[in-house]
Amino acid sequence: MSNFLNWSFAWPANRRNLYNRASADLNGKPWSKDRIGIYWDAAQGKWVGNDVPDFVKDRGPDDPAFNSPFIMQTDGKGALFAMMNEGPFPEHYEPFENPMDNSFSSIQLNPAVQFGEKAMNAQGDFSKYPIIATTYRLSEHWQSGVMTRNVPWLAELVNNMFVEISEELAKEKGIKEKDKIIVSSARGEIEAYAMITKRFKPYKLKDKTVHHIGMPWHFGYKGIATGATANRLTPHIGDPNSHIPEYKAFLCDVRRA
Amino acid sequence: MADYIKFVDVTKCDGCRACMVACKNWNDLPTVTEEYSGSYQSHEKVNAHTWNVITYNEHTTANGGFEWLFRHQSCLHCVEAACEKACPEDAISHTKFGSVVIDHDKCVGCGYCTTNCTFDVVELATYKDKNGKEYRKAQKCTLCTDRLEQGLQPACVVACHTDCLVYDEKETVLAEAEKRLAKIKERFPNANIYNPQGIKGTTTVYLLADKPSVYGLPENPKVPLSQVVWKDYAQPLGKAMFGATTMAVVGAVIANAMKKDKGGHEEGGRDHE
Ligand code: SF4
Ligand code: SF4
Ligand code: SF4
Prior knowledge:
By secondary structure, chain A is mainly beta. Chain A has helices spanning 152-155, 167-173; strands at 38-41, 46-49, 114-115, 131-136, 162-166, 180-185, 188-197, 203-205, 208-210, 212-216, 237-238, 250-256. A 6-stranded mixed sheet of chain A has the order 5-7-6-12-4-10. Chain A has a two-stranded antiparallel sheet with strand order 1-2.
């Protein structure tokens, strides 16, 4: 561990790593030769090394407090601060609807996920809804658009609900530029304009080729600019900790209107 | 006064369109809602009430790569301005800021400027007088000359959050542009500074990420000689001999003929294909 103790100054004692006593083991020796923080020099009877000791300077292995290096905790011991509802460590879980098995864990979905109303949360199966969808915002509109879709100069810029699809998917489904399409999920369906773009591409997921579509969720039925509501399609489940709903990944199908 | 220009570095534009809203806001322009275009582009091109438009082009590069190219499209304020040369009423002129402006007291709505503009960015707006009679006036970006006169920057420049749009001393801006060009060449080998010398340069200068034709801009625009002759010789002479009205009629014939040899749009095409 390199510290540049003469470079600038770290308040309050020019110490660069808090609890640096923990960089040495119970005999006061560095855990690793390559990363020496501070260590106990028995000959001198004090802590020396690459930092200002964060411990009483002349208290060695014989001292009863030697094994309590976290001096700002009442018990002097280290602790994890982990308030997540699904366990102490974050783990990868897959979305509620998903074409893939979880490669990182035998548990597919976060077990602490919070469900909204049952009726809004039918789960679609990949065999029936083989396309991945996502929703997002645009710079011209804000949230569900109730304000911005009523501002003429903003409504003029994004006046229609649209769904972005790849050239490959358009070809497969016989969809042409400016066609209206129907997007369906286990929860509902909407009609919107197709926006055929090079910016969406099918994914190769292990042995499967999976299409991906995207759409804004700013539209609604009243205002200067109106259009179908993307949240007719999304599942209404919340992250166990932030309660943020899972509107970014779900399954759907697409056909020409 | 040092020369100032508006500079558009399209490689910094993120397509947010704050410039479009700022322009309508400052100039109090009504909406012109167009049919769904099939892309993010809101208007096919600038029009009489929409003085700048962001064009969106999903471009496949020569080596098969992909670039989403944006351009803030508006009047370029040509030093040799075809619109000015075409106008039979002397309604179009250059200000001390280098901007090309239309005097609406003089404009009769004949539309010669619209047919002759090198970049197709001036259009006729239709209004009604108090008796319900329709009349027309040519409209386009003014470079916010009214703001410049008050020591303010153009409204679109102030709104732009990426410094894609800047308004500053010409020498400084062009020197910066050269540096920026060198920096982006690796990603955009065809990048260039668009300040066409065939029309003696422009007061809105672009840094383009690809060839002008990719953006629907003429590669080497010129004001046709016939048009220069028309403005600088035939018009003054004609007016002296036949009076202004006759000259306007003669002008219609000539303007249409001139439109054919405007030239330069070889590979142009629509910006947002
Ligand atoms: S871009 Fe067109 S309208 Fe603008 S100054 Fe040039 S010729 Fe005139
Ligand atoms: S310079 Fe002024 S008039 Fe021209 S596009 Fe910008 S805001 Fe509109
Ligand atoms: S405000 Fe600037 S970044 Fe936004 S669209 Fe206009 S030029 Fe581009």
